[in-house]
Write the structure tokens for this entry.
Amino acid sequence: MTKQDLLDEIDRRSRLGLFPSRDPDSGFCRYRTTDGRKCFAGLGIPDEKYREHLEGSVATSHCVRLVLDPEIGLTGDDWTDLQLIHDSQGHAWDHDDVMDAVLALPCFAGMRPSGSQQE
């Protein structure tokens, strides 16, 4: 996965209402849910590296950073900033606000989702 792929997937899933990724019982954020949702950091964890024991670990933890796809090209701080956007949305997800915040991150400077009309 490339950084552009990640940005496109965030945009696509956000438009489809597939965020946030939360445990239906506790309301806590999850990297992955049983219904296929993934948080922003969850998108960066390849299927072959995902393990249930990662749930409950914050994106800044060593065990999570070890499994994030290095090909995407984000630093640990970039992942933290990105995940904070996801986590701050709560249950009132607003696609435009989220994408404005994502695109304002230095790691996505000058980038736009593929095919996006966003200026």
